[in-house]
Design brief:
By secondary structure, the protein is an alpha+beta fold. It has one domain. It has two helices and three strands. The longest helix is centred in the N-terminal third of the chain and has 23 residues. The radius of gyration is 17 Å and the shape is elongated. The termini are far apart.
Length: 65
């Protein structure tokens, strides 16, 4: 029983660390007509810049994409 509980605790901690990296590496910034999104992909950081009049739609597209 203790082994199962210990395994579940390790899995929970690992999941929290992974979720933290996912949340931390997804940043979206709006500068005027530019929407800049930075995220982690395959051990590197990727930056996407979208220039649009409707920054709300551009931000939604970057976050969902």
């Amino acid at each position: 029983m203790r082994r199962v509980l210990r395994s579940l605790i390790y899995i929970l901690l690992a999941s929290m660390v992974i979720l933290g990296f996912i949340v931390y590496t997804r940043e979206v910034e709006v500068r005027g007509e530019q929407v800049i999104a930075t995220r982690r992909a395959r051990d590197t950081f990727v930056t996407i810049t979208v220039i649009a009049e409707d920054t709300q739609k551009a931000e939604e597209a970057v976050v969902l994409g």
